[in-house]
Every structure is written in C-alpha cells, then in structure tokens.
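Duplicate of #3305? Posting structure anyway:
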C-alpha cells in the first residue's frame, strides 16, 4: 500500500454550479467562443479555422483582402477566382476559399455532398456545448438544466437557484465540510482509516479509504448519516475519486494496480 505523509490533506470545492472553461480569446466573433469555440469552428457554424489554429474567423473575413490569420491562410490562393463556384451547383450558396470553392449551408446545417442537400447538425454531440442537458432542434439547439438549477444569460451555463459553496476536506481520519459563506463547519465522517480522495454529487459524499484490512470506496449523506460501503473487492490502493453527478458514474484511480476505473 502506498504511504502518505502525516497531515496529508485533500480538498474538494463544490460550488453548486457548472461552468465551461474558455480558450483565451474572442476569435469566433460573437463572444461565445470563450465557452466552446473548438467544437464550433467549422463550416457548419460559418467559421473558418486558420491552418496554424491561431484564430477562428467568421467567413466574411476569409478572402476579403485583409490578412486575419497569423499564417495568412485566410487569403491568397484561389480566393478571387469566383468562376469556380459555377461548377458546384450548390443547394444554397457557394464561397471560394484559398483552397477552392465550397458549398455553404445556413448556420446549424451541414452540406451533404452525396445528396447535395443541407442536413441538420446535432449540436448536442459537441462536448461541452451545454453545461447540463441539451435538446437538438432544426438548425439549432437548446440547453436545459435539472431541477434546482436555472440557465444563465448565456443560455448554456446552469447555476443553482439557492444554496452556498461547500468545501470538503479530509485529514486522513475524518471528512469535514465548510459552508464558505456562513463559515459553518460540519463533521461528515470520523474514525476512518486513511482517507485519500473525496468527492461530492450535491447529495452524498464519496471517498476512498485505505484500510489495512480492506480498501474501500465509501458513501454517506452530507450530514454523515447513511454511511455505506460501495466497493471493497478487487481494490489495490484506491486514491483519487470523482463523481459525475449527472449520470451517477463514479470514477477512481488505483495506484497499486495502475488503472482508472468507473
């Protein structure tokens, strides 16, 4: 079993809301790229990615006689040979790019070269486009939230309607909670063997316990009640743990057997 230094501390901060990370700059042009530009910088979303991936441009900035990509991949080449579109017979419209002409469809649709039609794009298949639920619609999509959450003004991010941030921390032999606004502390579990990882799904606390008599993955309510063993067979040295609170899946690492399991 792996040893840990005395006073080992594991902290989990659960903020009761879900946010999506940005990628640093507003390259998509509409301000929304900070949440998920990587999945939407395609012709289906009327975007053009520079070859060196330095920017994600609206199509009107491609072949406009102004260099917007650091590598100038948005200009030159076949840009101004407009007669190339005459041979494609596009269902909606055609645009000439530096590497040649392409058929374009309205935002949220994808050109199908086999049927020469514009087919709906299922945006819900793009990872992270909504922080919780997603409903695909013709040419668009709609984000949804589970009970107790509401959509922010960006129409993608869900936040709780009430509550306050909770910090969970372990001190090897106990798990405690601290409500950050009220500074109220609670004891969730004590007299434990050696707690390494801890996670929270909004209702229950999960942790890994390295016990010489049998390693285990445990669960209890946030007030410490209803403690139970979820798994204590086939474990070597369970360490980090994370709970997907939407699906209920539990992910954990095993330092002795060198794997990530669910």
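Output from current build:
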């Amino acid at each position: 079993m792996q040893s840990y230094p005395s006073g080992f501390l594991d902290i989990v901060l659960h903020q009761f809301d879900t946010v999506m990370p940005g990628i640093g700059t507003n390259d998509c042009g509409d301000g929304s790229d900070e949440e998920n530009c990587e999945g939407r910088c395609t012709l289906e979303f009327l975007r053009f990615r520079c070859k060196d991936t330095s920017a994600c441009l609206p199509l009107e900035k491609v072949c406009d006689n102004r260099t917007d990509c650091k590598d100038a991949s948005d200009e030159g080449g076949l840009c101004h040979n407009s007669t190339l579109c005459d041979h494609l017979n596009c269902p909606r419209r055609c645009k000439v790019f530096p590497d040649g002409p392409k058929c374009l469809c309205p935002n949220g649709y994808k050109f199908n070269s086999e049927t020469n039609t514009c087919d709906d794009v299922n945006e819900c298949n793009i990872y992270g486009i909504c922080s919780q639920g997603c409903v695909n619609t013709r040419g668009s999509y709609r984000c949804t939230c589970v009970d107790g959450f509401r959509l922010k003004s960006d129409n993608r991010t869900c936040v709780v309607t009430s509550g306050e941030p909770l910090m969970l921390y372990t001190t090897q032999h106990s798990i405690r909670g601290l409500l950050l606004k009220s500074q109220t502390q609670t004891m969730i579990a004590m007299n434990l063997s050696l707690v390494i990882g801890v996670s929270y799904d909004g209702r229950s606390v999960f942790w890994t316990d390295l016990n010489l008599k049998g390693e285990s993955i445990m669960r209890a309510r946030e007030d410490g009640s209803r403690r139970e063993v979820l798994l204590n067979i086939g474990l070597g040295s369970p360490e980090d743990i994370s709970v997907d609170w939407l699906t209920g899946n539990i992910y954990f690492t095993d330092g002795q057997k060198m794997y990530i399991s669910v």
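Confirmed duplicate; merging threads. The longest strand covers residues 184-189. The CA atoms of residues 39 and 126 lie 6 Å apart.
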